[in-house]
Amino acid sequence: MSKPLCAILLVAIGSLCLLAADANVVDAGNGDHHSLELDENNWTNVLTDEWMVLFYAPWCPACKSLEPEWREFAKWSESHSSVSVASTDITISPGLTGRFIVTTLPTIFHVKNGVFRYYKMGRDKDSMVSFIKERKWEQIESISSWKSPNSIQMSLVAQFFKLSQKVRILHSTLMAEYGLPTWGSYLIFAIATIFIGAILGLVLVCIIDLVYPPSHHKMPVKDGKDENSDSGQESDDDDELVKDELLDDQASDEPTENEPLLRNRRKIRKTD
């Protein structure tokens, strides 16, 4: 077979595979209740109608043991008009791990019109079917609004999880492709963290100064009349003291007959 013919056949086979994959995605999004693979772009589909959502990882043994039961439950959901089935690989969508606060694997959520609940019953098909048919989810307390995956704070947590995944990839790239040692990569991240923190702190201080500008306190100024009156009174007292001193000097030069008068004057001055 010639090389051009082989190339044409490969292109044709690849095109058919892509068309088949696109058809499966469209079916999953059109409500045919196929198991939908959730990611960062389509996770909002579970906010409407009723869903059962599984979080798993390929390396998790418990997830592997649950896989056949989950597949059977997904087949059952195809003929059930009220529930759809979706699953998320946390290694592909780390942002959803933070958004849903997934701490153990496997984790299953029941979602009804945007209200989330943890599924903590049996991990076999019959238990999950009974959970849906008998509406046992009504007996489970829903996740609070501040921890709901569609809240603003959980959206921020999702961004942090995605950022941590990018940092991990960058760390691996620095060591694998550029040959940096582990401590060298950590040193680069430490310097970058300090630099970014300093910039954010400066921006925060500027914002606070703009929103709450510092107030300048003025020293109280006394009235001129009070100052003049005080100064006048002090000058009068000084004049009296000077006069008393002069009288004392004159009295000291006079004969001893005036000593009683001098003593009385001194006593009066002390009492004043």
Automatic annotation (TrEMBL):
Protein's organism: Macrosiphum euphorbiae
Annotated Gene Ontology cellular component terms: endoplasmic reticulum membrane
Membrane topology: Single-pass type I membrane protein
Membrane-spanning segments: 183-212
Compositionally biased spans, kind Basic residues: 263-272
Pfam families: Thioredoxin
Protein name in the entry: Thioredoxin domain-containing protein
Signal sequence annotation: 1-23
Biased composition range(s): Acidic residues: 233-257
Keyword Hydrolase part of the UniProt annotation: no
